[in-house]
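Lest this sound abstract, we think one record worth quoting, the chain in one-letter code, the fold tokenised, each line plainly labelled:

>
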Amino acid sequence: MQASSRSRLAITAVAVLAGIAVALAAPGSTSAQGPAGDRVPVNVMVVQTSNTKGEVDPRALELHEKLRKQLRYRSMRVIQEQRVDLQMNQVGTVDLPDGRKVRMRPLHKGAKGVLMAVDVQGAVKLDARARNHHKVVIGAGEYQNGNLAVSIEPDYE
């Protein structure tokens, strides 16, 4: 084999290996997502509570049971539900109906649950720890003759 043929073969081999490496690192590939232990799926529910006579949305019954002894309201409706699948230290964003945003970032996952940094734009910034399948509820300010609340619930295996 001539030197130029060997050089072309070596360059081709390097190009193929580089292509494989790029494909493995591409978004959506298993290796780019990290191990399952780094995943923190979060169920987010945005509700509006109001003093206007009404009902509690059946989708929010569990949340209502948690809040009814702590807050005064006569009705609760679910405005949106969203599942945000995050990695550790990855910021996830949920848009509120009034144009503001809720940003959340899991900082640590352990036996006592997930520690998350949460920023409700224009309302509150805090670090909150939630056990798996337990809700943390954050007030998000006034909205259409009532108040918004955001429920964040880690839902991992």
